[in-house]
Amino acid sequence: MTPATRAEHCVIACAEAWRDAGEVLASPMGLIPSVGARLARLTFSPDLLLTDGEALLVRPDGTVEGWLPYRAHLALVAGGRRHVMMGASQIDRFGNQNISCIGDWERPARQLLGVRGAPVNTLNNPTSYWVPRHSRRVFVEKVDLVCGVGYDRADGARYHRVVRVVSDLGVFDFATPDHTMRAVSLHPGVTPRQVREATSFDLAVPDGVPRTRPPTAEELRLIREVIDPGNTRAGEVAG
């Protein structure tokens, strides 16, 4: 079997966000997070709940295993029993996320998705982020508009927890004394200098930061033969 690609390391990093999660609803937004959630369900998180994004609970192969009406979905969201992995057009050192606009809110240079459900997601259930292109335009000193709430704005929020940020360069969390972002692992071939240069703020990269763990042979088989045999993951991550 050929060695794992960068995209497959990203799949593993996303899957690890749901390790031993128990019976919580995984809400992956994006191709690689979706492959990661399905891989987690098939391996180390068998109680994970997967949704079709509308009203059904599904198995990793897409077959239906339950009904999830909107009112039940909202109960999971508001009670900390959902772990969403969203995208981020901008994210800062405290985990504040922007998916709404670039520039001043009243006259933005770019109009994006809008705030949508990001405040509710981040204040009421664990949240992670997936960024397929790690750059200074995304990892910014200060977001132009706060959509997802970071640690410096979440005082008193019972279920607020930004679990991890996964990018095409590495894995990051906020397990520092002041809840600022730090590197947990870097993907193979990525250097500390490279990730610092691609980040607008002073990112903590500990000495001896490890490599993101590679997929096992069985995980590679599941990714390549069962979950994503068309290799659509390769189109989301270069290299």
From TrEMBL:
Gene Ontology molecular function: any one? CoA-transferase activity
One Pfam entry name: CoA_trans
Keywords recorded for this protein, A-Z: Transferase
In terms of SMART domains, this protein maps to: CoA_trans
Q: Which domain of life is it from?
A: Bacteria
The entry sums up its family as follows: Belongs to the 3-oxoacid CoA-transferase subunit B family.
Quote the protein name from its UniProt record.
Putative CoA transferase beta subunit
